[in-house]
Design a protein that fits this description.
Chain lengths: 344, 362
C-alpha cells in the first residue's frame, strides 16, 4: 500500500513530463489523447495526416521555450521554423504554410525580437514556406520567461507516402540511417547556459531538412522517418520496435557523434543517444535504397556525415539492441525522466 | 579523447576476453563496489563477453542508494522553509523520501538548486546573505574533500549562512561488513576514484583478515576486463592480495593533501547504510571546530530509523544478494521516473543501470 500511496501523491506536473521520454508519452496518452480522442490523434505521429478529397494534408504544431533564446548556431525563432518544417517533412510531406504565435514577457527588447523574426524569415525562405498568420500576447514580468513561440504548419502529402509517418511498411532487412552527428544541439544549449564553466565550440545543428529529405526520397523506398529531437535517437528506435514482431540492431561504432560532444558526455554523464537535435533525422529505408539514400544525404549540406547505423532484424522482436564499441551487447530503451530541460 | 579510445579498443577487449575465458576454471563471484563500475559494465555490455564461471554482482557503492530515507525526509523538511535554499548534486533530487521528494518540493515552490561543485553552493551563499544555504553533502571518499574545502573556505571568509548536511561515508567498512555478514564474494573490483583519494592500503583488512582479493580498477572497458583478469588469476593461483590496475591515478598512499583536508574537517562516526544497517566508523560528521557550518546542529536534525517501502529489495540488491531483475517491482512499479527505491534513481544505481542497459541475452 505504501507504494501506491506514493504514486498517487504525484499529482503535479514535473519537468520530466516535458522530456520527450516515457513521462511525456504517459501524459499525452492519459490526459490529451484520452480526452481529445479521435483516429487522427491516436496515430501519435509527428504530424497529423488528414485526408482532404483525394489528397492528404500533413498538419503539425510545436511550442518553443528554449533557454537561452540565443544560443550558438541559432535562436528560438530559427528553431521554431525549422522544428515545424521538419515535423512536416519527416512525414513525407512538402511543407507549405506556417503560423507563428508569440508570448512575450514585458521588457523584452524589440531589437532582439526583430533579430529573432529576421532569422525566422531567413529559415522560411530557405525551406520554401510562407509564414501566413500569427498572434501576439504580452504578459507581465515573470509570467513567462522572455519569449515563447508556437508555430503550426501544413504541407501536402502524396498518398503514396502516407505510410512514412507511421512506419507501417517496415520489415526485417531494412537499413537505419541518420543524417549526421548526434547531440550538437543539446551540447550547444548546455554550453550557452554557462552553468558548467566549460568552453566549447560546438554549435546547434538547427536546420530545415525538407530539401535533404526531398532529395533522399527521389527514386528511393523510404519506410519511415522521424526528426531526432527530445528523447533522442534511442527513444525513437525503442518506439519503432514497440509491439512489433521485429527488432533493431545498431552498432555504436557507426553512430556519428562529434569528438567534442563525446567528451562533454563523458564529463557530464549524458548519453548522445538520448540527446536532442534540431537538424537530424532517422530514416528506415529498404535495403536496395540504402546506398542511394546515404549518397544523396552526404551530397547535401545537412547530411555530410550521414551513416548507416544498423538494421531491422527478425531477432529479439520488440527490442533495440546496440553492439557497443567494445563488441558487447546492450538494450536501448526510451528516455526515462529528463536528460536536460528546456532545450527547444 | 584519444586517451579514452585505447581503453575501448575492440581488439584489446576481445583479446582480454579470450584470455579470461582461457584462465577461468573454477566458479568465481566478483563484486563491483562502485556504482560507476556497475554503469560501465552494463553500458558496454561486458557480461556478454565473460564466461559462465564468472558471476558479477553489484555492491553498495552508489551514495544516493545507501543513504537513509531519514536523510531525504530531513532535507525535504529543510526545503519547506522559505528562508532556506537547498543545494545538491543532481542525483539526489529525485530520490523518494517517505512522503515526497526534493523535485516534488521544487515543483511546489521550494528553492532547490542543482550544483556541480560545492563552490557553486558557496557562491549562492555569498549572493543570498538573507537566506540559509544548505549543501547536501553526500558521497564517499571522492566527494568528501570538496565538502571539506567549502567548509574551510566558508570559515575563512566568515560566511555565516552556509551549512553542510553530511551523510558522507567511508567505503572499506561497508566492504568488510558484507563479508562479515557471510555474503559469498571471492574478490572485489575495487573503487577507482575512492582509492585515488584514499589509497590502496585501506583494504588490507579484507586481504589479511578475510582472504578476499581486491583489484582497484579504472572505469573503461579495458580497465574493467583487465581487473577481472587479475582477480581470476588471483583466484586460480590462490594468491589473494591487493593490486592496483588503475595505476594511472591510484597511489598506495592515495592523495595525501585531500586526506589531510578531510581529516581536518570531518571525524568518523557510526552510520546507517541501506541494506547493511549500522556500521561502526563508516560515516563522517563535521568536527566540533566547524560546528557553525553543520546543518545537523544548526537545524536540530534528528536521526531516526524509517522503514523501507514494502516490496522494495534495494537492501538485498546493495548487498549483492539479489539482482534487480529478481525484484517484483522492477520495471513494473519501479521505473526511473517512478522510483520506489533509490537504486532506481541514481545513474550509478544498480536497478537504474539494469533498467537502462540490460535485458538482452544471446
Amino acid at each position: 500500500m505504501r507504494i501506491l500511496d506514493f504514486l498517487v501523491m504525484k499529482d503535479k506536473i514535473l519537468l520530466g513530463h516535458g522530456s520527450g521520454g516515457k513521462m511525456s508519452a504517459d501524459l499525452i496518452k492519459n490526459i490529451f489523447v484520452k480526452n481529445f480522442s479521435n483516429s487522427v490523434i491516436e496515430a501519435l505521429t509527428d504530424s497529423a495526416i488528414l485526408s482532404v478529397g483525394t489528397s492528404s494534408l500533413a498538419f503539425t504544431t510545436d511550442s518553443y521555450v528554449v533557454d537561452p533564446v540565443f544560443f550558438p548556431g541559432g535562436n528560438i525563432g530559427k528553431l521554431a521554423v525549422c522544428g515545424t518544417v521538419n515535423d512536416l517533412a519527416v512525414s513525407g510531406a512538402e511543407p507549405l504554410y506556417l503560423s507563428a504565435s508569440f508570448i512575450i514577457e514585458e521588457g523584452f527588447l524589440i531589437k532582439d525580437l526583430e533579430t529573432i523574426v529576421l532569422s525566422m524569415k531567413d529559415e522560411a525562405c530557405e525551406a520554401g514556406v510562407s509564414i501566413v498568420t500569427g498572434d501576439t500576447k504580452v504578459v507581465k514580468k515573470r509570467q513567462c520567461d522572455k519569449l515563447f513561440i508556437t508555430t503550426s504548419g501544413i504541407g501536402i502529402l502524396e498518398p503514396k507516402n502516407d505510410h512514412i509517418a507511421t512506419g507501417s511498411t517496415i520489415k526485417a532487412g531494412d537499413k537505419i540511417i541518420v543524417n549526421g552527428y548526434l547531440g550538437d544541439h543539446s551540447a550547444a544549449v548546455l554550453m550557452a547556459r554557462n552553468e558548467l564553466n566549460v568552453q566549447s565550440s560546438v554549435i546547434s545543428d538547427v536546420a530545415p531538412l525538407n530539401g535533404l529529405i526531398k532529395n533522399a526520397m527521389a527514386g528511393n523506398t523510404i519506410r519511415f522517418m522521424r526528426d531526432i529531437t527530445r528523447g533522442g535517437l534511442a527513444t525513437i528506435l525503442a518506439e519503432i520496435v514497440e509491439n512489433h514482431n521485429f527488432g533493431i540492431r545498431i552498432y555504436e561504432e557507426h553512430v556519428p557523434v562529434r569528438q567534442e560532444v563525446k567528451g562533454l558526455c563523458e564529463i557530464f554523464g549524458f548519453d548522445p543517444l538520448y540527446m536532442a537535435n534540431e537538424g537530424k533525422l532517422v530514416a528506415v529505408v529498404s535495403p536496395d535504397s540504402a546506398e542511394s539514400v546515404l549518397k544523396k544525404m552526404r551530397n547535401h549540406k545537412y547530411g555530410k556525415h550521414a551513416a548507416i547505423i544498423g538494421e531491422i532484424t527478425k531477432n529479439h522482436p520488440g527490442k533495440t539492441v546496440m553492439e557497443s564499441i567494445i563488441g558487447g551487447n546492450r538494450i536501448i530503451d526510451k528516455l526515462a525522466g529528463e536528460q536536460l530541460p528546456r532545450i527547444c | 579523447m584519444k586517451y579514452i579510445n585505447e581503453f575501448r579498443n575492440k581488439k584489446i577487449v576481445a583479446d582480454l576476453s579470450a584470455q579470461i575465458v582461457k584462465l577461468s576454471k573454477s566458479k568465481i563471484t566478483l563484486m563491483e563496489v562502485c556504482g560507476g563500475h556497475t554503469m560501465a559494465i552494463q553500458k558496454f555490455g561486458i557480461p556478454s563477453l565473460l564466461p559462465d564461471t564468472i558471476n558479477l554482482i553489484s555492491g553498495p557503492g552508489c551514495p544516493v542508494c545507501v543513504s537513509s530515507r531519514n536523510y531525504i525526509d530531513n532535507s525535504i523538511q529543510l526545503a519547506r522553509f522559505p528562508e532556506n535554499i537547498i543545494t545538491t548534486y543532481g542525483d539526489l533530487i529525485r530520490v523518494p523520501g517517505s512522503q515526497s521528494s526534493l523535485d516534488i518540493e521544487k515543483a511546489s515552490g521550494a528553492d532547490v538548486r542543482i550544483v556541480y561543485s560545492t563552490l557553486d553552493a558557496l557562491e549562492i551563499a555569498r549572493k543570498n546573505p538573507g537566506k540559509n544555504i544548505i549543501f547536501l553533502g553526500i558521497g564517499f571518499e571522492t566527494t568528501t574533500p570538496s565538502s571539506a574545502v567549502a567548509i574551510q573556505q566558508a570559515a575563512k571568509e566568515k560566511i555565516t549562512n552556509f551549512f553542510v548536511y553530511s551523510t558522507h561515508k567511508i567505503m572499506p567498512p561497508a566492504m568488510e561488513a558484507l563479508i562479515d555478514e557471510g555474503i559469498q564474494i571471492d574478490g572485489y573490483i575495487g573503487p577507482g576514484h575512492v582509492s585515488t583519494v584514499a589509497g590502496s592500503q585501506m583494504y588490507r583488512n579484507l586481504v589479511n583478515r578475510f582472504r578476499i582479493s581486491v583489484v582497484i580498477s579504472g572505469f573503461e572497458p579495458v580497465d574493467i576486463l583487465q581487473s577481472i583478469y587479475m582477480l581470476v588469476k588471483q583466484h586460480e593461483t590462490r594468491d589473494k592480495k591487493i593490486e592496483i590496475q588503475y595505476t594511472r591515478t591510484v597511489l598506495p598512499e592515495g592523495n595525501l593533501k585531500a586526506r589531510k583536508l578531510v581529516d581536518e574537517v570531518f571525524e568518523p562516526r557510526n552510520d546507517w547504510w541501506r541494506g547493511l544497517g549500522i556500521i561502526s566508523d563508516s560515516g563522517l560528521k563535521i568536527r566540533e571546530k566547524y560546528v557553525l557550518f553543520d546543518a545537523e546542529k544548526k537545524f536540530n536534525l534528528e536521526d531516526k530509523e524509517i522503514k523501507e517501502p514494502g516490496g522494495c529489495i534495494c537492501g538485498e540488491v546493495l548487498k549483492g544478494l539479489k539482482k534487480p531483475v529478481e525484484c517484483g517491482l522492477f520495471k513494473k512499479v519501479c521505473t526511473p521516473e517512478n522510483p520506489v527505491g533509490a537504486c532506481m534513481v541514481s545513474n550509478e544505481g544498480a536497478c537504474n543501470a539494469y533498467f537502462r542497459f540490460s535485458g538482452y541475452e544471446g
